[in-house]
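[job 0412] stage=fold_complex status=start
inputs:
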Amino acid sequence: MPYWLIVPGLAFYLAFVIVPIIATVRQSFFQWDGLGPQVGVGWANFTSILSSSSQTWSSFKVSGVMVIFTCLLPVAGALLLVGLVARTKVRGLSFLRFVYFLPYTVALAAVAIAWRWIYASNGVLNGVVGATIGKSAEVAYLGSFSLALPAVGIIAFWATFGFVTVLLFSGAQHIPREQFEAARVDGAGPIREFLAVTVPGLRHEIRVALVMTFIMAMRTFDIPFVTTQGGPGYTTTTPILTMYQDVFQNGEIGQGAAIAVMVSIVTVAGVLILNRLLRTKD
Amino acid sequence: MMISRREQALSYVVLYLFALFAIYPFVSTVLVAFNGPNVPVSGLAWPAHWTFQSFISTWSNSNAGIGRSLLNSCILAGAVVPVSVLFSIFTGYAFGTMRFRGSKMIFGLFLLGLMFPYEATIIPLYFEFRKLNLLDTYWSMILPDIGGSMAFGTFWMSSFFRGFPRELFESARTDGANRWQTLWRIIVPTARSPIFALAVILFIWTWNNLLLAIVMIESPSREMAPAALNFFVGAQYGSNYQFTCAAAIIVALPVMVIYYVLQRRYGADVLAGALKG
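[job 0412] stage=fold_complex status=done
writing structure:
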C-alpha cells in the first residue's frame, strides 16, 4: 500500500526534478551550442566561469547583495515588527497580516512593473523627491550604474518582508504570555525583553524564514529580468539571469549548466550552514 | 499587560508605516492604470479623469493577447493544481502515517527538492522537450510544474498527517475500514484546510512562474499570463505605464482574489504559519 501511494508523486518528481538535475551536472562538463555535437571538455566550463575576467563572479556578487535585500533585511525588519506586536495587544492585526502578505501573492513580473513606475524618471519617487526639494528631479534609478542594484534590491525586500513578518507573527502567538510577564517582573525593559524572550521564542521561525528567503535570493531572476534586463552593464545580472542568457540567447549550454550547478551548490551549502548554525531542538 | 501609551502609539505608527509601504505600490499601479491611454502621467499620477480606457486598450491589444494568456494560465493551473494536490495527499499519507522500507531515504530525497533552486532543472527539460516535440505545448509546462510541486506538497501534507491523533486511525480500523477508506472518509475531510491552503500556494506558484513560461512557450496563442506581461515591458510599450500597469493588475487580480478568499476562510497566516512545519 505505501509504495502504491508514493509511486505517482515520486515518478513525476524523479522525471522532472531529479533526473534533470543530474542531466544538468552532466551537461556542465560538455560544450554544446544546442544543435551540433556535444564535446566533452572536463572542467573547462567551470574554469571559464570562475576565471577572474568572467562575468559570473560579478553575478555572484549581485547574489550577495540580493541575499542582504531578500533575506537579511526582511528578517531584521520582521523582527522589529514582531517585537512591537509581541509585547502588547495590537488592534487590527488580522488586517495588517493580510496587507503584509499581499506582495508575496503577486507575480514578480507584475511586482516589477509596479516598481518600474515608482522608479520611472517621471514616476512616483522623482515626483515625491521633486516636491520635497522644490525643483524637478529626474533620476533614472534603474538606469544608473550605482543605483540600479539597490533599487532592484528594494523591490526584492518589498516582495519578501511581509511574508517573513506574517511567518514570525504566527510564531510569536505561541510564545507563552508568562514569559513576558516574568521578564517584566525581573525589571527587563523592552529591548532586554525582546532579546531574552521574543527572539529565543522565535528561533525556529527565524531559521525557516532565513532558509526560505536565502533560497529565493539565490534564485533571483524575474525582478531584474523585467526591470533592468540585468543592466546597466551587468550591475543587476544575477547568476540565473546569466544562465538564461548563456543557454537561450548565446548558445553556451554547457556554460549555462555550469552556472546552474554552481548556484545549486552555493544554495544547498548555504541552507545546510544556516540549519546547522540555527539548529533547534525538535 | 501594561505598556506606556507612548510606546503603544509608536508601535501603531511603525506597524502602519510598514503596511503603507506594502500597499503603496498597488495603489500607485491602480492610479496610473485609471489614467487614459494618451494622458501624460507623472508623479503620483492621480487621474484627472478616471477611465477604464487603458484597461480596455490593454485587454484588446491583439499582439499581447492578455485575455488569451489568462485562459492559458487557468488551463495550466487547472491541470497542475488538482493533480499535484492529489499526489501530495498520497505521498503525505504514506510518509506521515506509515513506516515502510526505504521511507526515510525516499522522504529525504523529496526534502532535497526543497533546497534545490528549481531553475537548475530547466536546461535539460528544455532540450528533452525539444527532442520529444513537446516544446510550445501545455505539456511542457504542466509536467515540470507537477514535478516541481511534489517536494513541497509531500513535505506539507506529511507534516500535517504526522500530527494527526493516533486514535483517529485506530477507531477507523476497528470500524473495519482499510487504509484507502480511512484516507477518504477520515483523513481528507479532517485535513480540508491544509489541503485547501496547499492548493492556493501551488496555484500562486504555477500562475506566477515566469522563467518556465518564457523558456517553454513560443506561440502567442499559448502564452502564459506573466510572459504576456513581459511583452508589455518590451520596447513598444515599456514607457507607456498606463498599459503596463493595467496589464499587471489584470494578471495579478485572479491570484489576489483567491488569496483574499483563502484568508477570509482561514486567516492570513495559514499560508505562512503552516510553512514553518
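[job 0412] summary: Chain B touches chain A through 101 residues (CB under 8 Å).
[job 0412] exit 0
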